[in-house]
Amino acid sequence: MDASRASDSDAYYGPMLLFKSTLFYLLRRLIGTAQVLRVSKGRNIKSFRMKLHSSDVRLLRENPNARVYIFAGTESTVDHTNTPIQFPPIEIYVDDVLTKQFTKGIKGRPGSARPADLTPYFSLFDKLILLRIVYLDALENYILYTYIVEEFPLATLVEQIAKKPHISAAATRAQIQKQNDLAGEDADLVVDTSSLTLRCPLTYARMKFPVRSVECDHIQCFDSESFLSMQQKIPLWQCPVCSKYIDQNLLAVSDYLADIIAKTANSVDSVNLNADGSWKAVEGDALLDSDDDD
């Protein structure tokens, strides 16, 4: 049979669990049949075979960004249209070769796991493949799905964010003025200056591509490449400044921060913000003042 298929024990025929595409990959095609990892105390093994359709093989060979991913979610998932990725403690073997995977999410945080990438272990896409799953202490049934996805490089994602509408410098200056006005009212005094770091709160390196969510209230940004790299490993989508959830589609470049970074030397770590939204480098660093005409 030429069609994609998964055979052997325990295929799953219940309600389909749907996983959503992310910034990092686009789900292109489901391969074979969903499989069940049954409730188990201690160690258990699940084996099944899979053969790719000729069109799947062609897609994988012609598109260098095409990958074979395994997704898993719990059978008890409430919203089947938006299934968080979750795996039990697991080892995945392809034709008896142990694959290196990092599918463990953060305990108590459904959706903080990432899918398993099997692509490097498929030496021949058009042959029958044996998948063996060794798993531990599954407290409920887990459902496995195999997809061909299109993966997007980090550099492409950074570029895509840069092409979206930016947070304008004028909007940020107005935000600074408003925050200073509110602070002055609350404290019954005028706040002359505040400090803004040019270092990413994730890596402590000077930012290259300063971004934040358009829904966050703070001026402080983080580096888009550093943030995306971390979300690729553990997709928490949590703002590193205020800890709010970040909608991945609402990240935007801050023109205000980008302008400061462009106008200051690499040795500059921070600037002082004036109440009117202008800025000046911290004393001791040989720097430029802001240009209020931008």
UniProtKB/TrEMBL annotation:
Q: Where is the PINIT domain?
A: 5-152
Asked if the keyword Transferase belongs to this entry, the reply reads: yes
Q: Which GO terms describe its biological process?
A: protein sumoylation
- InterPro entries reported in the protein's UniProt record: PINIT, PINIT_sf, Znf_MIZ, Znf_RING/FYVE/PHD
Q: Which UniProt keywords apply?
A: Metal-binding, Transferase, Ubl conjugation pathway, Zinc, Zinc-finger
Molecular-function GO term, any one = SUMO ligase activity
- In which domain of life is the source organism classified? Eukaryota
The UniProt entry, under SUPFAM superfamilies, shows: RING/U-box (SSF57850)
Reply yes or no: does the keyword Cytoplasm apply: no
Query: SP-RING-type domain spans which residues?
Result: 185-270
User: Any one cellular component term from GO for this entry?
Assistant: chromatin
Q: What pathway or pathways are given for this protein in its record?
A: Protein modification; protein sumoylation
PANTHER family, alphabetized: TONALLI, ISOFORM E (PTHR10782:SF4), ZINC FINGER MIZ DOMAIN-CONTAINING PROTEIN (PTHR10782)
Q: Which family does it belong to?
A: Belongs to the PIAS family.
User: What name goes with this protein?
Assistant: Zf-MIZ-domain-containing protein
Taxonomic source organism = Metschnikowia bicuspidata
